[in-house]
Write a structure and sequence with these properties.
The chain contains 7 helices and 13 strands. By secondary structure, it is α/β, with parallel strands linked by helices. Its EC number is 2.1.1.193.
Length: 241
């Protein structure tokens, strides 16, 4: 039986006892059928990962007794995803898979062809935490407040930002990504793609480069994951064992 991993943003140190959240208590007691004395692991990016046991567990309350640290904090890749707001199930899937692929930031953006008018940030943050717990990373991606695309670009820090633009005759992504080093970002549009004027505005910015993901037209969620995988393979941490 695998040991559950639990993200906790409190200061972690050997010998400490820290309270869990009601959601963690429910998951451990109701879903996993664990109880006091059972082993867990508690982690965050600042302090690392610690062996722990469940000190006590009630219906909506729990606490963890921390043992020895078993993983020290480590630098993680600064790979960012800007993604147009799309339907809930697809957006949930993107956040889960982007977390597994190691992104540091997920920035939802509103575009002219976005078909939703709001994004449930709390829901996406919970999905990101769950995915981080499953994939053994130490950090949880920052889920930023939704912005109009132009505002997200106006506030960008100048790191290279590649945009999926399959109808622009752009270079294949591997030719561009091979010359990059992190930090960098990946921008994916909505179903139906960006409007021409919208993409033109993005490409006028010196840090934005259009790239192609091959001869087929991909769904937004497929393009998000495919591009992140290429960037991790060619510019990120996939060469680290």
């Amino acid at each position: 039986m695998s040991t559950p991993r639990l993200f906790h943003d409190a200061a972690l140190a050997e010998g400490a006892e820290i309270p869990g959240t009601p959601a963690q208590a429910h998951h451990l007691g109701t879903v996993l059928r664990r109880g006091a004395g059972d082993e867990v692991a508690v982690f965050n990016a600042r302090d690392g990962e610690f062996a722990a046991t469940i000190a006590h567990l009630r219906k909506d309350r729990c606490a963890f007794a921390l043992g020895a640290r078993r993983r020290a904090p480590a630098t993680e890749p600064d790979l960012r995803l800007l993604v147009a707001a799309i339907k809930r199930d697809a957006m949930d899937w993107i956040v889960e898979k982007a977390t597994e692929l190691g992104v540091s930031v997920i920035q939802p953006v509103m575009t002219r062809r976005s078909i939703v008018d709001r994004v449930n940030l709390d829901r996406l943050a919970a999905i990101a935490r769950g995915a981080a717990e499953q994939c053994e990373r130490l950090s949880v991606p920052e889920i930023r407040a939704t912005l109009p695309l132009h505002a997200a670009l106006d506030g960008w820090d100048g790191a290279p930002l590649l945009v999926a633009a399959e109808r622009r005759g752009a270079l294949p992504i591997r030719h561009v990504a091979a010359g990059l080093r992190l930090p960098c970002g990946w921008l994916v549009g909505p179903e139906g793609g960006f409007e021409t004027a919208e993409l033109d505005d993005a490409l006028r910015r010196p840090f934005v480069t259009a790239v192609a993901l091959g001869p087929r037209i991909l769904r937004a969620e497929t393009a998000a994951v495919a591009g992140l995988a290429v960037l991790q393979a060619l510019a990120g941490d996939w060469d680290v064992s």
